[in-house]
Amino acid sequence: SAPVVTNKTVCKGASAGTFSVIGTNLLWYTSATGGAASPIPPTINTTIAGQQVYFVSSNNNYCESTRTPLFVNVIDSPRVVLTVTPSTSLLPGQTARITATINPSSFVPTNYFWTKNGINVALGTNFIDVPFEQIGTYRVNVNIPNACNVVSDSVVIRPSTALVQQTAQQK
Question: What is the pLDDT of residues 132-150, one digit of tens each?
């Protein structure tokens, strides 16, 4: 019988991993008919966005099944944009909220992994609240199912220049 395949979506430039195919003695082709069979799965080219189609059949040593198409969609990576409210400069007692927005919004993330100064600090939602006591450099790594992980640019939460000037004057 023909193999059962799971189509694949990967981000441009990411590792494509392996194919998910159920069948025995698989043979791979680059076209629906004709061409030479190979027992080795093709290498997925993720350098260019677009759809690629491969064909796979199953062989029981007596006869070969029909070829099943396997579609690989290579997509442009989404971007993660960070916004900070009310400000990246804090005074004691103030809190900044960093919010991550996925662009385009058609990508639906499953997890947000927040880091402060390169160390994991939170897992969860698309925002993190940063009190004055936690100033530092923040980023978020966003996991998007069947696609890729996307890392934001960093945003620095720092003491307000008014506080820095006041501290300097006191010395």
Answer: 999 999 999 998 876 678 8
